[in-house]
Fold this sequence. Notes:
Domain Response regulatory: 3-120
Protein name: Response regulator
InterPro entries: CdaR_GGDEF, CheY-like_superfamily, Homeodomain-like_sf, HTH_AraC, HTH_AraC-typ_CS, Sig_transdc_resp-reg_receiver, Tscrpt_reg_AraC-type_HTH
Helix content: 55-70%
Oligomer: single chain
Organism: Paenibacillus anseongense
Coiled coil: 391-418
Radius of gyration: 38 Å
Amino acid sequence: MYRLLIADDEALEREGLEMMVSRMLPGQFEFIHAENGRKAIQMADEKRPDFIFMDIKMPGIQGLEAVREIMSRHQEVRIILVTAHDYFAYAKEALSLGVKDYILKPAKRDELIEVLRKQAAELEEEKRRRGEELEIREKLTRLLPLAENELTMMLMMDCIQEFDLRYLVELLNISWEQGYAMVLSFPFGERKDWEHLQSVRKVLHEDLKQYAKLQLACMVSPMIGNRMAVFVPVPSSGAGFTNRVDALVFGERLQAFAEHRFKLSLSIGIGTVGEGMEGLRRSYQEAAAASADSSDVVRIRHYEDICQRDGVPGIALDEERKLLDALQRQHKEEARIRFLDVLERLIAGSGADDRVCRDEVVGLLISLARQISHRSPAEIVSHFAGVAGMASLRQTAAEQLERMLEDMTEEREHRQFRVIERAKSYIGEHYKSDISMEQTAEYVNLSPYYFSKTFKLHTGETFIDYVTRLRIDEAKRLLESEELSFKEICYMAGYNDPNYFSRIFKKTTGVTPTEYRQQLSP
């Protein structure tokens, strides 16, 4: 049954229209009356009619004004004007407002019914189309998570096919000019940890996915083993260092959510911002490397924090790439297993010719060394100069791999040491001014989160404690001169408030600046 609102200031006109409709189309309409424009607007809001017969000339709010107001709120309603010949020009204007049709007074029964039937048929057709659209939308809603899973898996497994990729991106309505990847890893040290992860795995993935999407527009992969990935678009106008800090903040939120809700330890690796889908793929590899770097000091790691060099060359998806990934992540046991697998296949495929196998192994080691080590090809080749026989080849190859792993560990330690030394030098030059940890972290190209952890590990002090010690040591030196006032010393040591300086000095040394100067007097 349809709802028909009849708006006319004359009761006889309303009743006449109702009578004609009810006789010609019995039982199909529920009738609502309105004696003026204001009442018509009110009834449209309250009753939500399907059709409205609207008289143009009414007291107060007139027909066109009421039409304009109703159409602004209820665009689906079908309005039919009922107007006298004198106001036909108004009917033309009403058509521009969205009115579906008009009838001239006095209304003829056949014309009235024909207009109603036509509008009812169009309404039913709209409902049918809307139903089909809703059905398609429902199917699409079910399909989108599958498309998201497929796209994220293609990025993670490095099996992108151009046609499928374009189709999935279009289907998901994604605009990835640039973005980064984040890998969430749930480490487990004992069997009970693994069993707990398995018991909450499905709910964990669903809740983390929902929470991540509430925070940022992103794609979330399925959980594979104890890992899942998040892909986040970023604006092209953003600064690199700012993007890195924002990504770490997002990671901290995810970590806090997972650990509070599920009582699970979570390590997060974050890749650099890359352009397009290929950039996302590389970012995922970087994030996987950062998340698996168990030698690090923090559990949220950005790739640029742990790899202070200009990127890692991309290589084909083969055994060498997998081995390179394991080496870059400094996952020594995985690297050993992959290397030995490659070595044994080379040995098996070379038959009795150990020279062919030796050349292949040397070529592999040289290729790896170019990307992760400073060792020269000549040095690597020299170690295989006297190798003869498969047993000797296995031993030498394994030794060279271990040497490569040791070189990487030493290089990493030296790199971190150099970064901290640069930071200490920067602090030494600026501690007398308004220096902050964030400024220092940006100077050495580390995120504040990573910098604070690494700085304390290498110096044994927090950033604030380190700066405070330098300032207090400087103040002590200046207090030896009786020509300087306490206020001058305060400013020269890097403090802006003499009272605060006095409190910090006493907290650090156990005495006030005055007492300290008195102790210096003979």
